[in-house]
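tl;dr need the bound structure. longer version: we got a ligand (MU-OXO-diiron) that a collaborator sent over and nobodys looked at where it sits. i said id run it. heres the input, straight from their email, havent touched it
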Amino acid sequence: MKAQEICEGVHWVGAIDWNLRNFHGYSTPRGTSYNAYLITGEKNVLVDTVKHSVYDQLIERIGSVIDPSEIDLIISNHTEMDHSGSLLRLQQMSGAKVIASAKGKEGLAMHFPQLEVEAVDNQGKVDLGSKTLRFIETPMLHWPDSMFTFLEEDGILFSMDGFGQHIASERRFDDEIDGCVLMQEATKYYANILMPFGKKFLSALESVKDLDIRMLACSHGIIWRSGIGAIIDSYTSWAKGEAGMKAVVIYDTMWGSTRTMAEDIAEGIASKGMEVKVIRISNSDRSQVMHEVLDARAVVMGSPTINNCLFPPMADVATYMKGLRPKGKLGAAFGSYGWGGGAVKELRGHMEKAGLKMPLEDLRIRYRPTPEQREDCFDYGQEIGEMMADWSP
Ligand code: FEO
């Protein structure tokens, strides 16, 4: 396995995980990569490592450029194990110095007590001779330890998870792959990893706005070099919570009643000129749902009641959404029940904790919707559609 040079003296030496289909609960139908970068010169520097299970790929690729024992310095931009899983082994083999943010040092000490790590300051620099590294702390993007590293002379921002996508590819750059696929995966990535941290990302963008960035070398997927402006504009829009005239109806069903309600509500929303996506969660997955929620103005969720509780597939997606906090959107809850009817109440609680605004009463129907109740569902959808037109987060 070979390194790929991304500019003179800088190589991609990461690992491709072609068949990964689940990244801690996030579906990855296109696999992923763990990107590490080797800067060679007076000092040899590795920016991040890879997941422990693909250490051999990292070593082979580094070995196609230099002997891995010649690495002088390893930068850990992010403590999560997909990027630091090979750190200890590589450090022990090379004797390299390891640097990270102060929070990174703290986090790495808990994973690797025997590893010595030097903390760098925000905006601190390391002089490599002909090249200079600058460190920019980006706390909570998406862990406390996260930081960007900027290679000043080449204009490369090593942005760890920022701007990443779960794509396994033999190509390295954004102008070498299908732009629709790239944006789809970048959007899904933001929605599932970075959505709770929009304000922090806006601050991070502010702190790099004066840098001459010619490459965004992220830690997963494809490097941005032609579409840097476009992806920064998209991140800015997502971070501000901007949404289109779109509703997502997420539901599950036991015997079809909640499905009927979902479809009638969706028709009502659409009748007001809104775009609608209807997702039955047991035929989809939570990360795909969040991809659709990111730019939606309304999130409508429906669950049947089972043993007076939320239906488990809906509990899963509602819990996941609560963590990702899609703030400021219009929310509404509905569902069918036989006698207890506790699911919708429980669902509302999750949705409110996720930051959704819920001005409408919940819509609950006992057993099967009658023709009149189906009209009520349509009307409920129309009411949601009308509210969406004037909704501001
Ligand atoms: Fe790709 Fe937060 O690790």
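gonna send this back to them w/ a short note. The chain has a mean pLDDT of 97.
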